[in-house]
Write a structure and sequence with these properties.
Length: 279
């Protein structure tokens, strides 16, 4: 029942999915880095700060995406942007645009909810004016993209430092251990920050365990098969053998098969009695 609901939901809303979403995310980062160079102080007005949001600065619910992960190395920044664009585009190609959209937007939504959860906890403790805006950023959302990539393509190799070939699954394990250590050293604050930002990966891993075990080629063939099935499902049932009009292009027409033609020839109402019979 749940699986059918998800499929129906996907059929209904997949047309609203944004293609090439990774590119738009990278453009946001590039704009954020430009702001950081021109006026770094202005970024403080864009962060995900529940205190300021509740005081009317609702634009922060969206603009925090423009705040890029901190770095002071331009070359490393360009490499990082290209890397995340590459793996994001690969995931979108394999999963499909709709599911990749759901993954990214759910990560952002969970991050927003996590910021308000942390605010609520501190408000209950009498410290409701504490700001955590600088902690919630797209850094861990990017991390969730990489972890999903590592789970989907565990055997794929990348060149570490452009020299050392390493399987992605080992890098994913290293990042996972690093995140756990961060949580242990950072206390409840980082548990909420990291946990909320990576919740989309946890949901993905638990709901697609069979998909994770498949090889990239198997996943690609599965997506192609589903696409072909959807295409076949859209094939029209009625088509005029003379003018080519169908019940989809012209729903007002009526179609009938001709009993005098040798074969299954169907004609619209305009050509049913005027066509030359096929012998």
């Amino acid at each position: 029942m749940k699986n059918d609901f998800g499929k129906n939901f996907e059929r209904k809303f997949s047309k609203y999915a944004i293609p090439n979403l990774s590119l738009y995310l990278i453009i946001c980062y590039a704009f954020g880095y430009l702001l950081q160079i021109v006026n770094s102080g202005f970024l403080s007005y864009l962060t995900l700060d529940p205190v300021m949001i509740l005081h009317g600065q609702v634009w922060r619910l969206v603009t925090w995406i423009l705040v890029p992960p901190y770095t002071n190395n331009l070359f490393f920044t360009l490499i990082t942007l290209y890397f995340y664009y590459s793996i994001g585009s690969t995931l979108e190609h394999v999963w499909g645009t709709y599911r990749y959209n759901c993954y990214l937007f759910s990560g952002m939504l969970f991050t927003i909810l996590g910021s308000f959860l942390l605010y609520g906890v501190y408000a209950a403790l009498g410290a409701g004016n504490v700001s955590f805006g600088a902690l919630f950023s797209t850094y861990y959302v990017n991390m969730s993209i990489f972890l999903a990539f590592a789970a989907t393509f565990p055997e794929m190799q990348v060149l570490l430092m452009f020299i050392i070939p390493v399987k992605v699954k080992y890098l994913g394990i290293i990042y996972g251990v690093y995140l756990v250590l961060q949580c242990l050293m950072g206390g409840i604050i980082l548990w909420v920050v990291i946990g909320s930002s990576l919740l989309n990966f946890i949901v993905f891993f638990l709901t697609t365990r069979n998909l994770v075990r498949m090889s990239p080629k198997q996943i690609k063939r599965r997506q192609q098969f589903k696409s072909e099935v959807r295409h076949e499902a859209r094939i029209t049932r009625h088509k005029c053998a003379i003018c080519g009009r169908t019940e989809e292009s012209n729903p007002e027409l009526e179609f009938r098969f001709c009993s005098k033609c040798n074969g299954n020839y169907e004609y619209c109402q305009d050509h049913l009695f005027t066509h030359k019979h096929v012998e």
